[in-house]
Design a protein that fits this description.
Strand content: 25-35%
CATH topology of the largest domain: Nucleoside Triphosphate Pyrophosphohydrolase
Oligomer: single chain
Number of helices: 6
Number of domains: 3
Order of helices and strands: HEEEEEEHHEEEEEEHEEEHH
Shape: globular
Radius of gyration: 21 Å
Structural class: alpha+beta
Largest sheet: 6 strands, mixed
Bound molecules: zinc ion
């Protein structure tokens, strides 16, 4: 059984065949459900996306069609939104509250907008690039090269011993008492499985003897996809924090985890993260007891 991951929702038909059809795009825009995104803040009303009029400013990216054939777009622009505004919220804040279709659309919109924002110049010749195919590509206005959105894969690993305890680590840069699972980007030339072996060895000295795939979740902060595994290691007695990225590690059985969360000695990652889904799934039905203050930092775990 794969994990049920909060941001892994794709209910819209992306309808790629319509991306190059300018007449269809213009017609759809007039009747579309248009999400407004300013920087990384979505316009929200009553814990749902608040769709806006076709007059709304911004770059237009086509997201797809719902089951009834209604088109969805995002109108994206750079700007500044007061953090105290209730009308605008980040995906992190609102993500768990949205309906599945809206989560999928918002994840797509945010990932796309951030890719466009950081690919204004051609990687081949340095020329200015422009939006093409309703946001699915950028095209260089000097050399005509086409650039496609990129997603950076990272593995995230729930490390276990043969007695079914889990190992969590603490990064120096995280808020105090925050622990989570281990993770790292896939490097060029690596398979996901090789990355699991390398990251676990690097961060805690664990020697992986078996691993199991648990699922994947897009993590558009700004451009990752997290590929989740659990991995059993052979040497729980000799694991140690690498002292560079990870400053502390802790082995936990279920009772110890619940006690430390209840006493706030240990803070878990947020509910929309893969890490939290893996920890909750391991914990079983009693995971509902793991309610404590959440702590955020801009990392995918
Ligand atoms: Zn170019």
């Amino acid at each position: 059984m794969l994990l049920d991951l909060p941001l892994s929702r794709c209910e819209l038909d992306r309808a790629a065949h319509l991306r190059g059809d300018l007449a269809a795009l213009a017609e759809m825009w007039q009747r579309a459900k248009i999400i407004e995104l300013i920087d990384d803040q979505f316009r929200i009303k009553d814990e749902s996306l608040d769709y806006v009029s076709p007059e709304t400013e911004g770059d237009r990216f086509f997201l797809g069609l719902d089951k009834a054939g209604a088109p969805y777009f995002v109108a994206y622009r750079k700007g500044f939104v007061e953090s105290t505004s209730d009308e605008f919220q980040s995906l992190r804040t609102i993500g768990k509250k949205l309906a599945d279709l809206e989560i999928g659309a918002a994840v797509h919109a945010l990932a796309l907008a951030q890719w466009h924002e950081s690919h204004q110049r051609c990687a081949k010749c340095g020329g200015a690039t422009v939006i093409g195919m309703a946001g699915a590509i950028r095209k260089c206005s000097a050399c005509s090269a086409e650039h496609h959105p990129r997603t950076d894969p990272a593995v995230i690993v729930l490390v276990k011993d043969e007695s079914d305890r889990i190992l969590l680590g603490r990064q120096k840069v995280w808020p105090e008492k925050r622990f989570s699972t281990f993770a790292g980007f896939v490097e060029p030339g690596e398979s996901f499985e090789s990355t699991v072996l390398r990251e676990v060895a690097e961060e805690c000295g664990g020697q992986v003897i078996s691993m199991k795939y648990l699922g994947s979740q897009p993590w558009p902060f700004p451009a990752s996809i997290m590929i989740a595994y659990e991995a059993v290691i052979s040497n729980p007695g000799t694991t140690k924090a690498d002292g560079e990225e990870i400053e502390e590690i802790i082995w936990l059985d279920r009772e110890l985890l619940k006690a430390k969360v209840a006493s706030q000695e240990l803070l878990l990652p947020p509910a929309i993260s893969v890490a939290r889904a893996m920890i909750n799934s391991w914990c079983g039905p009693s995971a509902r007891e793991l309610v404590a203050k959440e702590s955020w930092r801009d990392v995918g775990r």
